[in-house]
Design brief:
This protein has 301 residues and is of the alpha/beta class. The chain is built from nine helices and twelve strands.
Length: 301
């Protein structure tokens, strides 16, 4: 009997280690994939008066930043209530993330340049204890507050698809942009200057958030990455979008199909399931049962 108990305990312990290992690998994979910047409405140039003028894009009707009541690694309070009148960069990162480490000097440069008009907050997704993160931060000379991430924080920002990911918040406390991966410091600088009302040689444009910033807004999208609605009537397209927003992806992401397509355009599972729905709606296939429904999760992601 005792041998069986010991064997069961070893199996359970191994299972826990496997789950933790998978979680760490996934986060490391996200960091590796984030080397190329992915932004909501990437910067571009437009021709104005015969010259190329850089463009920055912000959400047309931005939402308030999620509440934040936490303590940083030194025990000091970090709260959204103190952000009034400042531009804020909420930066999700980890010490083991190469692109995260690469952008730290640039974030420090921005903080030094804009002083008390810019607040950077680091949200560490490290599995290591805070003591190790503190040592890393001190070695890097990180002067802005750093808090340890919780699932609630990550969920509040709609999920963080890759590391690093930064949310840009305007002086009124509204999230106006999201950048995943290494983002050029000059582009950050122009965005911050624009939000502070400083002189800048850029043109500001706005876009509707259809999941690029907050995944929950994918339900407002009329087009989705990798989904071909060609040939559907307006009513059929409406029905297809309804199903894509109501049914879950089975890749394990716990997102609706629409959210998964916006979050990860390379996901073969959501791509194939979305194509299946389009075929069924167009009359090219039959489905006796709907795919797995997302339930309330589609609302809260």
């Amino acid at each position: 009997m005792s041998k069986n108990i010991i064997l069961i305990a070893l199996v359970l312990a191994t299972g826990v280690l496997v789950v933790v290992g998978i979680s760490r690998v996934k986060r490391r994979a996200r960091a590796t994939a984030a080397v190329s910047p992915v932004s909501a409405g990437a910067s571009s140039k437009v021709s104005v008066g015969g010259s190329n003028l850089p463009v920055v894009r912000f959400v047309k009707n931005p939402e308030s930043a999620p509440p934040l009541q936490a303590q940083d690694l030194l025990g000091k309070p970090v709260t959204k209530d103190n952000w009034g009148g400042k531009v804020v960069l909420v930066n999700f990162w980890a010490t083991w993330c190469p692109p995260c480490r690469e952008e730290i000097p640039e974030l420090l440069e921005l903080q030094k340049e804009f002083k008390d008009r810019l607040q950077i907050v680091g949200i560490s997704e490290d599995d290591d204890p805070p003591e190790k993160v503190i040592k890393f931060a001190q070695k890097q000379g990180m002067t802005y507050p750093i808090v340890m991430a919780t699932e609630q924080m990550i969920d509040a920002y709609g999920g963080v698809p890759a590391l690093p990911t930064s949310f840009l918040i305007d002086t009124q406390g509204r999230v106006v942009q999201k950048h995943s991966g290494l983002y050029p410091i000059e582009s950050y600088r122009e965005e911050i200057r624009s939000l502070l009302g400083l002189t800048t040689d850029v043109r500001v444009e706005t876009f509707e958030d259809t999941g690029q910033v907050f995944l929950k807004n994918a339900s407002n999208a009329t087009e989705l990455p990798g989904v071909d609605f060609t040939g559907l009537s307006p009513e059929q397209k409406k029905l297809a979008l309804h199903r894509l927003n109501a049914e879950s992806c089975t890749c394990g992401c716990k997102l609706t199909l629409s959210q998964c397509r916006v979050n990860d355009g390379e996901c073969p599972t959501s791509r194939d399931l979305a194509a299946q729905i389009v075929r069924e709606v167009s009359g090219g296939g039959k489905s006796a049962q709907p795919l797995a429904t997302a339930g309330n999760k589609s609302i809260t992601q």
